[in-house]
Amino acid sequence: MNRNNRVLLLILFSILIPLTLNKANAQLSPLTITLTCNPLSGQAPFSPSCQWTYSANGSVNVVLYWGDGSSSDMTSCGYSCPSHSYSAAGTYTITVSITDSTGRTASDSNIITVSSAAPQTTYNIQVGAWGDEASIGNMGAGVEIKTQIYSLAGQDSADSFWVGDNLQNGAFIQFGYELFGRPGNYCLYGKATGISANCLGNHDAIGYSEARWFWQYWPNANVTDFYSGIGPAGSVGPDGSWHLYQIRPNVANGWNFILDGRTVWSFNLYQVTKSIDQVYMVAEEVTGDAEPSGTLGPVEFRNLDYWTAFGWQPVTSLAAILGCGAISPNCGILIGGYVWNMPYGVTLVGPNDVIAGTGQTSRTRGDSIWPSQLMLTLYGPNGVTFTVDDENQIANGQSLLKPGSHSVSVSSDVSTSQGVQLRFDHWSDGYKYADRSIDLESNTTLTAVFLTQYNLTLISPYETSGEGWYDKGASANFGCNAMPSITNTFGLAIFRGWYDQDGNLYSAYGTGSVIMNRPLTLHPVWLTLDYFFPIVLGAIVAIALFRKIGRREAEKEFVEAEMPRPIEVEVTKHSKSSNKPSPEPFSGDEIETVHAQPFVCRFCNATVSKDRLICPTCGMPVRPL
How confident is the model at residue 555 (pLDDT cuts 50, 70, 90)? Predict the structure, then answer.
């Protein structure tokens, strides 16, 4: 065969052989496969579940490539296989490949995203400052934060710097920037529930010690369930740049997170609620290490303010925050240290301007940072004296005091004029006692409220009731025993009524009442009859005597009028030598004999002896006494 014939044969075979093969293949079903993995994103350790379906003639070999350099022969798994676990954050392409008996291949792929595992929090250490009490009840918070980017090498932690509020519905809200200590693929918007997370948005790879803005909303500040968002790369500017972070209500009555005047996120799942505490700013270390790193910032905060119905209001004082957040309030950092001392502090740079974190001024919780002294102003009526920490202070005065607890007292009763005094009633904040203590956290004004009292004076030699001090307008009851009484001179005192010093009658009875609108002096008036009882006794005796004398006279006249007839007396004479009576007059030697007749009772005609005054028969007098 010559050369030309050989070339012709080669060309012919090159055409016929593929045509023959294509004709054979055309008799087979198309080879296809579909891969479905679920879920497509999660937090490490992450194990998606993958299944596939395919169409082929005859047997196939199945190989699953996990995208992390490993693969698995899944020929014997059927249409699914055990999950593969991803421990590192990143984006992975899972590919399933099949090969049939003819050598044909087909494949399909899914892309999954694995975010970094949340560190097991041992401590979330916070240091910063509260605003003044006037910020309680605010509806938004704001502060300027200076971006500070530094290395978190060797730390299982993330540092954040933010402004926030505790809300009346039990929630907590915050906005600031975070320095990420662990590189990985992070969810930019999601919800964390306990130790699990549900990504509701996109993912993004975040590098080691990269700074981005972040926000969080905790429906319950004491439970580890919260919504969060993370900004894009470079969103908080370069190291040393200042940025204004603000939280305030939006038109949907939800929350807007505003960075440098631009809304970067709107969160409307929960309605706006006023704060229950003061606004505050914090530098925070969240770490899973056995103890704090000792490296937190330091970062500068300035111009802390809060949102009200009247717009943004600056705070007028700052008090130190040191300790742990709500999710681990007893995290082992004991201020003053049973375990070890707080490694971070707060330094005042200027008015409403502090640096928080490593190497700053050590504080105790609640220390006043700015101003270093607070003004206590006390108001009260003229003449009232206040005592502040055992030092006297006149009313309407001011004291510069260190923040903290102070004792305050005020005189409870103050005399202003004759019969008029002031009585302490309460403080302007509702406290009821004159002696008290206050926790001075900001400039404070207190007013001591006094009531005017008038004195009721009762002047009487006898016992009275009701004398004393009465509030202006109060009803005063007074009284005494109004029964007639015996005086010291055995006279008789008869009650006439209650009179004032001008002679006005207030009550004609032993008791009475009066409305106290001025000082008042009352005295009971008595009609006194001196020596009443001796006079009466003398009169009784005199009357008795007069009656007795009159009775005697009456009896005498009676007896004389009713006396029995006159006694007839017969006189005879006898001589001394003879007992015979002589008719002749007595000559001296005769004896005169008188024969008297006995008395006869006029009433009963009974004979009565001459020595009897009363008839023994009828009891009637027969002769005068």
Answer: low
Cα separation of 137 and 231, whole Å? 29
Which residues span the domain enclosing 215? 123-370
Given the DSSP bridges, would you call strands 391-394 and 413-417 parallel, antiparallel or unpaired? unpaired
* β-pair partners for 321: 128
- Judge contact between 214 and 120, C-beta under 8 A: no
Q: Do the beta carbons of residue 184 and residue 156 sit within 8 Å?
A: no
Is omega for the bond preceding 524 within 30 degrees of 0, making it cis? no
**Are residues 351 and 339 part of one domain?**
yes
Q: What is the DSSP string of 48-79?
A: -EEEEEEE-SS-EEEEEE-SSS-EEE-GGGTT
- Neighbouring CB atoms inside 10 A of 4's CB total 8
* 224 belongs to a structural domain: yes
Of 247, 214, 58, the closest CA to residue 135 belongs to 247
At residue 548, the 3 state secondary structure works out as helix
From 176, 185, 246, 187, select the one nearest 211 (Cα to Cα): 176
pTM (predicted TM-score): 0.52
Give dist(CA 45, CA 207) in Å, integer.
19
- Please tell me the distance from the alpha carbon of residue 368 to that of residue 350, in angstroms, as a whole number: 13
Question: End of a domain among 334, 352, 370?
Answer: 370
Q: 419-458 pLDDT, tens per residue?
A: 999 999 999 999 999 999 998 877 889 999 999 999 999 9
